[in-house]
Amino acid sequence: VVLKEEDHGRMFPVTNKSKTIVEALLQAINDHHVTLLTNTVVTKLIHDGSQIRGVRTETDEFSAPSVILTTGGRTYPSTGATGDGYKMAKKVGHTITPLYPTESPLVSEESFIQERTLQGISLQDITLSVLDQKGKPIVAHTMDLLFTHFGLSGPAALRCSSFVNQELKKQQPVTVVLDCLPAKSHEALPQELIQSAASKKQLPNALAGFLPERLMTFFLQQLDLHELVAEKASPEQLAALASLIKGFSITIVRTFPLEKSFVTGGGVHLKEINPKTMESKKINGLYFAGELLDINGYTGGFNITAAFCTGHVSGKNAAETASYFSY
Description:
By secondary structure, this protein is an alpha+beta fold. It has nine helices and 16 strands. The protein folds into two domains: 37-101 and 258-325, 3-Layer(bba) Sandwich (FAD/NAD(P)-binding domain), CATH 3.50.50; 106-255, no CATH class. Helix 5 (188-196) crosses helix 8 (235-246).
């Protein structure tokens, strides 16, 4: 698959279509003469307590000295994700860490969100930070952001979502802070605003170049400055505006649920997996790969890379194990 690199190391097919990845996988299956059984539900792992023996489906049993469990997470149920893999792993003694949505839009009940004041505003290269209970940032991402009818979406929101979910276990709600102009320092921005405000225009018009018009008007309304003539604005008022532009707090009450998120956090506990082979430490011949494991990465190829890497390691070692039984 021919790839292209976008910002922040994110990799995508040059076609911009996920179908391209699917077609490449299907082509590889055909090239290697792999037997593919579609619409075949696996209901049970067959084992003797220490060694895997195969799998049982709704209609048949298949004997095998190696089985790779790679059913994915619980997100995107339209792809067939049901969470069955977690149940199967648990039945053979594996620990499943709590599941939670990651790479998920952020839901806010702020009045300006409910009133849709900023809905549809898209911001480029902002910084979004997630604060802990003490008000200290635990993560910050500089990417694009979109205001929606429910809260925040876009790459910055999605990347912060797993940290929001982890923090929601400790506090309700969680505060995120938006820096609309991270490239401008706290010292420089007030001075730039003062220079731009040396005008007989209305303040929103004089400051039009800094932010999208609706967002700037909203910030000025928050400070009761929206009807002011620019040259009448004091340095203190413009400093307050600069602080709001660089530190706009938004409370988040939840993220989208697992079924509507991109990635599942949590899964089969990594301490119970041999990292060199991806084999279970509980049942010989049982291997794991992909999002079923307690690993998750950012969107933009990081999760599929983890799937391919763990898939390669588990496949190589599962095949080697199986070869011992053929002699």
